[in-house]
Amino acid sequence: xxxxxxxxxxxxxxxxxxxxxxxxxxxxxxxxxxxxxxxxxxxxxxxxxxxxxxxxxxxxxxxxxxxxxxxxxxxxxxxxxxxxxxxxxxxxxxxxxxxxxxxxxxxxxxxxxxxxxxxxxxxxxxxxxxxxxxxxxxxxxxxxxxxxxxxxxxxxxxxxxxxxxxxxxxxxxxxxxxxxxxxxxxxxxxxxxxxxxxxxxxxxxxxxxxxxxxxxxxxxxxxxxxxxxxxxxxxxxxxxxxxxxxxxxxxxxx
Length: 254
Description:
The protein has helices at 8-17, 37-46, 64-74, 107-124, 143-148, 158-170, 190-199, 213-222, 231-235, 239-248; strands at residues 22-27, 51-54, 79-81, 95-101, 127-135, 175-179, 204-207, 226-229. Strand 7 (204-207), helix 8 and strand 8 form a beta-alpha-beta unit. The protein is of the alpha/beta class. Strands 1-2-3-4-5-6-7-8 form an eight-stranded parallel β-barrel, surrounded by seven helices. Helix 8 packs parallel to helix 10 (239-248).
């Protein structure tokens, strides 16, 4: 089947419709210097990584724009911003995950920061993908939970996760992102992914705590459409190839 490449989100919808899983590498500007980019991109290209997510919960560095432009100058892999705040914005990227923290009750991260950033986001010309962001308890406190002053969803409360995802979809979110957090001891449980995937029709991204190919495959089979790995790759760059191969091995058309 021929995929329709008319935008990042259109690709994700097309891929979901045929059961084609995707692999995204998360690049944190605070942990990635310009000197490290060429090797990272070479590994990602060789491993057939589908997407690069750029961003983080803090991003205290000031080279987000330069980092994205450097990546785009040497890579054909689409770059999607994964912002922790409205300041994490550059028109050099291909798309933006416009995150609303639907798992929490902090109005600033539900809509407040979006009101402030909306004019700049519209002016950027980026493809904006409204995303229902759900932080799941991964066994340790996460930066996003601390910054947002919001508790993560319990990993064993399937009904809460399902209802939260459904609410996000019915409110018009184009995407659900379930995240156990960077460096989480435990990934999002398969039962949680399976339940959410069964009840929503929009694409599902899952990240956090994915440290080896087996965990990536398990989450694909549970229903995740896109797997995001960042922290584990920072520790062991060789995982880019092995995890990418594992995810793509689940696809019906290789």
